[in-house]
Each structure stands twice: as C-alpha cells, then as structure tokens.
Design brief:
alpha+beta, 7-stranded antiparallel beta sheet, 9 helices, 7 strands
C-alpha cells in the first residue's frame, strides 16, 4: 500500500507553481483546508495574480471613441492632420481614453449599484476575458469532477457542484479560482465545441435574476440550482449556451 505523502506549509510555493504531483497536490489541498496560514498565503497569491491578469486586458478602441477624440480637438485644427496621426499615437490615445472611461464608469457602477445583475455580468465577462487573453484559463486541468471539486477546498468559501457533461457534448476541462468582484470564486471550465465556457459559482443571496444576455458578442447566462447561482460566459451563441445550461441543470437535479 502506497503511503500518502507528508505535505506541510513549506510545500506552498511548489503547489502554487504546479510542481507537485497529483497525489501531493491533493494532500496539500487537505492540509490547506485546516491551515489558516496557507489559506492567507494562497488568497494573497490569487489576488496578486488576478491583478496581473487585469493588467493584461486592454479594451479596443471603437469607432465611436475615435470620433469622440476627433471632436474634442480644436475646431481650427485641420481634420487631415488629425487623421494623419501615426497609428501608434492613435492606439495610445484611444487606450488611455478607454481606460479612463472604463475606470470612471466602473467606479460609478460599483458605488451606486454594487449588487445589480448588470454589474455582475460585466465583472464575470471581464474575468473570462482576462483568463482567455492571458492563456491562463485553468488552474487545475482535469476532466474528472472528483479531482476538480476537492481542488477548490480551502481556497474559496463556495463549495461548487461539479458535473461531468462529456456524454452530452460539454466536456469538463478543469477549473480556476478568480476574483470577479471582491471574493474569490470557483470557476468551472467546459468546452462547447471550439468554445470555452467559464461557469462562475457563487452563493445564492436572493438578488440574482435568472436570464441570458448578449454583451459585446459574448453570451452570459445566469441560473440557480439549490443554494448556488451559476453564471456561464462564452463566445458560443445563445442556443449553444442555453443547451449547456439545460444539460448542467438537469445533471445537478438528477444527482443522488
């Protein structure tokens, strides 16, 4: 009989860097569940990583923003000289304006309406984009729900229900921890054909409204089962995400 590995706090860095074996990672997960010191270090690392991910996402300048920049130039300045600005300058100006506008609107949104569905949808979409743009879609890569579910132990207050939907065309590829707003949340990652589906899991608080929205070409669907609320974000079309939602909800409801 193989003896379980002895994992302690000094394995934290190796765990974060993905250098532990599957058995060692599982042992560290069990250790972290009861170790407040490791939990604090993990959360500090996750918040830092989320901040770094956020810095990688840069909104693209739209035609509307470009026209707004043009209209803000002095009236006596020839239009041709503005249009002839080097592309590098346009990108810099547009990016700066986008970031300023985003920060201003986000601050207003969160201060005035912190719990609205709209702000949550934007936060979930931003987290999905950061993950896909950075190439860090998953923290734990596995199609086995019995591996993915315990991986979240000690890392978040939410205990997600993880379903294997490969039989109905939506294979589980892993999970990650993300911080869309204030708290670290589990994110289950599935594939719908070539599309990535990020499923954010949070505790039901009575304020989430089920429904589907289309935002910037992405489908965002929210539903609840039991005491958990799920939000799926994907660039798949609405019909595909709706089919995924139905398959997920049915699987959860049929659990013994």
């Amino acid at each position: 009989m193989t003896q379980a590995p002895n994992i302690a706090c000094d394995s934290l860095e190796a765990y974060i860097d993905g250098e532990l074996s599957t058995a060692e990672s599982a042992a560290f997960d069990r250790h972290a569940t009861a170790c407040s010191g490791c939990q604090r270090q993990l959360e500090r690392h996750l918040r830092l990583r989320a901040q770094l991910r956020a810095d990688l996402a840069r909104p693209a300048a739209s035609d509307v923003l470009r026209q707004r920049i043009l209209s803000s130039l002095p009236a006596d300045r020839p239009a041709s000289s503005a249009v002839a600005l080097p592309r590098r300058q346009w990108v810099a100006m547009a990016a700066a304006a986008c970031v300023a506008a985003f920060l201003a609107s986000s601050t207003t949104l969160y201060v005035m309406r912190p719990d609205t569905d709209k702000s949550w949808q934007q936060a979930a979409l931003s987290s999905h984009l950061r993950a896909t743009l950075s190439g860090h879609v998953i923290d734990v890569a596995s199609s086995d729900r019995h591996t993915v579910k315990p991986w979240f132990g000690g890392k978040t207050k939410v205990a997600p229900v993880v379903m294997d939907l490969a039989a109905v065309g939506y294979p589980l590829v892993g999970g990650r921890l993300d911080i869309p707003q204030e708290d670290a949340l589990p994110v289950l990652v599935y594939k719908a054909g070539p599309h990535v589906v990020s499923v954010f899991v949070r505790q039901a608080d009575g304020g989430a409204e089920p429904g589907t929205a289309k935002v910037d070409g992405f489908t965002i669907a929210t539903w609840s089962v039991g005491d958990l609320v799920y939000t799926a974000v994907s660039d798949a079309d609405g019909a595909e995400v709706a089919a995924f939602q139905k398959a997920f909800s049915t699987a959860v409801e049929q659990m013994p």
